[in-house]
Amino acid sequence: MLNNMKEEMIKQPVSRLCFRSKVALAPMVRVGTLPMRLLALDYGADIVYCEELIDIKMQQCRRVVNEVLETVDFVAPEERVMFRTCEREKDHVVFQMGTADPERALAVAKLVENDVAAIDVNMGCPKEYSTKGGMGAALLSDPDRIERILRTLVKGVSKPVTCKIRILPSLEDTIRLVQRIERTGVAAIAVHGRQKEERPQHPVHCDVIKAVAEAVSIPVIANGGSQDCIKVHSDIEAFRAATGASAVMLARAAMWNPSIFRRDGPLPLEQVIGEYIRYAIRYDNHTFNTKYCLCQMLREKLESPQGKKLHSAQSHREICEAFDSVEYYKETTAMLEARSAAEARRHHTDDQLEDTDVTTMTVRFDRRDYPPQITPKMFLLEWNRSEQLPQPVYETVQRPLDRFFRSTVTVANKKYRSTAWDKSKKLAEQTAAIVCLRTLGLPEGRIGEEESNLVKKRKREEKTECSGSAESAEESGHAANKRNHVLSTPESEVPR
Question: What digits encode the pLDDT tens for the residues 406-417?
């Protein structure tokens, strides 16, 4: 029996990452991105999990070294950054994937293994986006597939492999499953102490996690105590003791205030938010991901004036305005732009743009500087028409280094562009139009400029539209009055 056990056990690769006596940031969709992971490490987390990333999407990514941000990015074909990491977390970050296929799982693991500390398979999330295609908690009913996935990963990659499960309705079935998982050679197993049908309002089953920890020899990471058990840092050890686990994984408690990892006690939320925002700006986090995480931190304060500002924010600058971080935003974006320009020169990506016949200046298009429905491109087009010139022609290039855009506009056989790079093609074209208009001394439609014929024309069109709407409303009102008259007329007086 013992010999058979030894044959089934697969030697675990040596790694700097240890899962005993550790506290981890749990994998959380839309929360576990780079800024939150770095903040958790700063406050004392030993291990940080990224959000669950689906194997099919990750398999399509290419690995890009981002010299400007000093990160490694895994970029999808549509240029979306699916996973971003950096040297600071390399020995602490666990890449969690959603998968139901051993070969796809292995392909993704090989793609990221040199940039992470371990690979984890999600086998516990009950949400539909995870369970579709047999992933997440759907795997709990297919132990054969679980075994194939884990054995393939353990044999195929050099980093430790782990998985995260939920408990089954039967304690015996749960123990049978984790013992089978252990035999695949995984380095640790995280156990969320609820069944897949249970939600945070249901109590966490510490006794089941404890039974699991006693049934296997590998580290067990206890998860699910945020609502019932863990309010402050000292509760983490109490939860570990109650579950008999080797480590503890925090989800919602860390999402609400990641400074719960601090042994010296939590920091004021305002300070935590400020530090999170700085990481989000420094690592060019997606604006709406930043906004989502901040909303989770504010919670009951979302109805405050500051919370309402956050709710309406559409950019990192507007988020910074809501939290008095504008100076940091300006300094950091200027630093990143300067670094980006320097890297572009070093890689000679600007060679094709350095023609001497192009008029340049350093400007950017800011939508807030212009009235609704007015843009510099519209002004430039209108001027060309008035001068009986051909329409402006825009040529836009994308820089491979950071995937930013820069546009050159040709007007009357002369070229104009900004020296700055923009995040989208549309912004780059607007910026080029501004350079042309300012060079020619023409109005561009900015708020505060003397009204041009184009602005007056737009106002007349809007007035006409409003008048038409008012007339329609008046007609609708008359019709409604007639209907109301009929409805309020006694039945004996209603025409038959």
Answer: 999 999 999 999
- Report which secondary-structure segment, H or E, holds 408: strand 405-411
- The CB density around residue 107, as the number of other CB atoms within 10 Å, is 15
pLDDT tens sequence across 102-144: 999 999 999 999 999 999 999 999 888 788 889 999 999 999 9
pLDDT at 338: 87
Q: Which residue has the tokens 């309705």?
A: 169
Count of alpha carbons within 13 Å of 21, Cβ hemisphere only?
0
Q: What type of residue sits at position 383?
A: W
Question: Could you tell me if 92 and 48 are in contact, meaning their C-beta atoms sit under 8 angstroms apart?
Answer: yes
The bridge status of strand 405-411 relative to strand 393-398 is: antiparallel
- Please, which residues bridge with residue 248 across strands? 23, 222
- For 202-232, the pLDDT digits (tens) are 999 999 999 999 999 999 999 999 978 999 9
Query: What's the order of all strands across the beta sheet hosting 405-411?
Result: 358-361, 414-418, 405-411, 393-398
The single-letter code of the amino acid at 479 is: A
| Residue 415, pLDDT score | 95
Measured on CA atoms in the order 427, 432, 438, 440, is the torsion positive or negative?
negative
**Which region among 196-200, 280-284, 425-429 has the lowest average model confidence (pLDDT)?**
196-200
Q: What is the DSSP letter of 113?
A: G
CB-based contacts of 482, cutoff 8 Å, min separation 6: none
Active-site residue among 61, 86, 125, 436?
Answer: 125
Distances (CA, A) of 348 to 351, 416, 420: 6, 21, 16
Alpha-carbon span 378 to 408, nearest angstrom: 16
In contact, 434 and 444? CB cutoff 8 Å: yes
Determine the Cα–Cα distance for residues 35 and 143; give it in Å rounded to an integer: 35
Is residue 125 flagged as an active site residue? yes
Q: How many residues does the chain have?
A: 496
Return the closest-CA partner of residue 62 out of 44, 74, 48. Answer: 74
**Pick from 423, 378, 374, 371: which is nearest to 396 by CA?**
423
CA distance 342 to 347: 9
Where would I find the H helices in 216-325? Answer: 234-243, 252-256, 269-282, 287-298, 305-312, 316-322
pLDDT of residue 473: 40
* CB distance 60 to 76 below 8 Å: yes
Residue 196 has pLDDT above 50, yes or no: yes
Give the span between the Cα atoms of 314 and 320, in whole angstroms: 11
Let me know: does 33 contact 50? Beta carbons within 8 Å.
Answer: yes
Report the candidate in 253, 245, 247 with the shortest Cα–Cα distance to residue 226.
Answer: 253
- Helix, strand, or coil (residue 72): strand
The sign of the dihedral angle between the CA atoms of 136, 258, 35, 285 is: positive
Residue 111 token pair: 């793609």
- pLDDT of 458 reads 56
